[in-house]
Amino acid sequence: MTTYEVSSVATVVGGHTRVQDDYQGGVESIIRLDDEYPLETLQGIEEFSHLEVIWHFHLAQPEDVQLHARSPRGNQRWPATGTFVHRNHRRPNQLAVSHPRLLKVDGRDLLVTDLDAVDGTPIIDLGPHFEQMGPRGPVQQPPWPAEMLVDYWHDASKRP
Questions:
Q1: pLDDT tens sequence across 116-160
Q2: How far apart, in whole angstroms, are the C-alpha atoms of residue 101 and residue 114?
Q3: 46 torsion bin: left (phi>0), alpha (psi -120 to 50), beta (else)
Q4: Three-state DSSP class for residue 88
Q5: pLDDT digit string (tens) for 19-56?
Q6: Terminal CA-to-CA distance of the chain, rounded, Å?
Q7: C-alpha to C-alpha distance for 50 and 103, rounded to whole angstroms
């Protein structure tokens, strides 16, 4: 197995304060670029509506990783699926990809909304979302992700 060492390029400031499964929408947070990167590395990013952000589940523990098939969220109504079919902290590298909406750029601060990472999360990499580099062709998935995520992007202020 090949091992890579990576360093964060930014940190999430504000926004969500605790890890939760649903009601991720409507929360603003800042992705703050680390001081070691010159501001020029963000030049032109304000022209894009969305970002692609790779982040680390920094609150997870190595023992959280589960390398076996299991039902999503422990719900037996949904089929047991393998580790690489889930999108959570139980993955081997405990990395996530999000596509927040970019609202504003202020120096090294990127104000975003709909970023499902919590305050203090290390950002491994970020870049603009290019529409032409999204999925090609029709997107197909089984019914259970839509059932599981029905409340995922609901407004956080409306959490019951």
A1: 999 999 999 999 999 999 999 999 999 999 998 898 888 888 888
A2: 6
A3: alpha
A4: coil
A5: 888 788 889 999 999 999 999 999 999 999 999 999 99
A6: 44
A7: 9
**Edge-to-edge, what's the strand order for the sheet holding 95-98?**
95-98, 51-56, 122-128, 10-13, 28-33, 109-113, 101-106
CA angle 25, 150, 68 (to 5 degrees): 105
**The amino acid at 33:** L
User: What predicted TM-score, i.e. pTM, was given to this entire model?
Assistant: 0.93
- CB neighbour list of residue 16: distance below 8 Å, 6 or more residues apart: 24, 27, 29, 116, 117, 118, 119, 156
* Distance separating alpha carbons of residues 114 and 112, to the nearest angstrom: 7
Q: In this structure, what token pair is assigned to residue 126?
A: 């970020």
* Dist CA 47 CA 60 (whole Å): 34
Taking the mean position of all CA atoms in its chain, how far away is CA 62?
Answer: 19
| CA distance readout (Å), 103 to 27, 60, 95, 115, 132 | 12, 29, 24, 12, 21
Distance CA 122, CA 96 (A): 11
